[in-house]
């Protein structure tokens, strides 16, 4: 089954568009997945005129693909939080990535001009919470154009951003699920507060990108090149290639690659490689199959004290203490 949609003038129209392809209709700002297709629901809430909260939870009996077609100049910007336990594939052009709640790409915010699609395996629950805001509202909030998001939206350049779901965000997302699935008094008011809090947390996290002084006008080739570089880093964590080597593979200058990588992934290349290396080290230690020195060597450290220092700085615990705590 394939569901196609695009950014539209009103979030309500999106729900109608998707419901029709499921062979059903919208009632009370949502719809249930027909039993012939699967189980679950799509639901939208409207905390404010410029903000929509969408909660999706469904299981499909057959493989499903959802395709987001590109359009130009949509005023609505989605911030998608992948909260499903099972990972699924997200595809941009010829690049495929695996995303889920515990990946470094648990959140993504695309402009309307870059298409993407998602593939869901059958009989596995997919859950997503999306905040969709009107960029004209945010532009008014940032009259001086000083914030990162303000500069991004005022530039009118194509973008595709990824972020990580923090523990604090996870608590809010769990709260939204609990409220939406219940029938408590003042639930709409509670969802209003949770949606505002979640959006604020996301924008504050995004602001950490503010050291990117100029914004690249990303096209699909740029995004695919960033993903190729990301994949190469993940394949070579024990000996990460130099930035000139990665730039050559991406067919970009070193400066352009670093700017595009930071804009898409949200971290500088060196910072991203270190974070993945430290997460890998933690996973290796968690198996209890390796000593601290063996893990340090596997992730590329010839000097044990350098590995210990890097692990402690990233995880706030020394690797030996972490191993002993298991």
TrEMBL record:
In this record, what's one Pfam family?
A: HTH_18
Question: Does the keyword field hold Transcription regulation?
Answer: yes
Instruction: Cite the SUPFAM superfamilies for this sequence.
Output: Homeodomain-like (SSF46689)
- Where's the HTH araC/xylS-type domain? 227-325
- Keyword terms of this UniProt record: Transcription, Transcription regulation
Please list the GO terms describing molecular function.
Answer: DNA-binding transcription factor activity; sequence-specific DNA binding
* Protein name per Swiss-Prot or TrEMBL: HTH araC/xylS-type domain-containing protein
């Amino acid at each position: 089954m394939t569901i196609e949609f695009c950014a539209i003038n009103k979030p309500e129209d999106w729900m109608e568009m998707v419901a029709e392809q499921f062979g059903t209709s919208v009632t009370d700002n949502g719809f249930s997945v027909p039993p012939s297709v699967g189980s679950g629901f799509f639901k939208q809430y409207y905390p404010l005129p410029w903000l929509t909260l969408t909660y999706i939870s469904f299981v499909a009996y057959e493989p499903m693909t959802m395709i987001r077609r590109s359009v130009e100049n949509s005023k609505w910007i989605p911030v998608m939080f992948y909260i499903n336990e099972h990972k699924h594939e997200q595809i941009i052009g010829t690049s495929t990535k695996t995303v889920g709640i515990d990946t470094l790409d648990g959140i993504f915010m695309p402009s309307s001009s870059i298409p993407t699609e998602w593939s869901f395996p059958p009989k596995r629950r997919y859950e997503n919470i999306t905040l969709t805001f009107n960029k004209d509202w945010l532009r008014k909030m940032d009259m001086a154009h000083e914030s990162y998001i303000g500069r991004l939206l005022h530039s009118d350049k194509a973008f595709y951003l990824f972020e990580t779901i923090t523990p604090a965000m996870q608590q809010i997302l769990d709260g939204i699920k609990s409220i939406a699935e219940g029938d408590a008094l003042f639930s709409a008011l509670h969802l209003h507060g949770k949606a505002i809090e979640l959006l604020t947390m996301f924008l504050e996290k995004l602001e950490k990108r503010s050291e990117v002084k100029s914004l690249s006008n990303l096209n699909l080739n740029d995004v695919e090149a960033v993903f190729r570089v990301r994949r190469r880093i993940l394949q070579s964590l024990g000996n990460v290639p130099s930035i000139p080597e990665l730039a050559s593979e991406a067919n970009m200058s070193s400066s352009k690659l670093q700017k595009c990588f930071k804009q898409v992934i949200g971290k500088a290349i060196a910072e991203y490689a270190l974070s993945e290396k430290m997460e890998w080290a933690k996973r290796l230690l968690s198996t209890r199959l390796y000593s601290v020195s063996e893990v340090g060597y596997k992730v590329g450290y010839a000097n044990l004290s350098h590995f210990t220092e890097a692990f402690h700085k990233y995880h706030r615990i020394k690797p030996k203490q972490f191993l002993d705590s298991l």
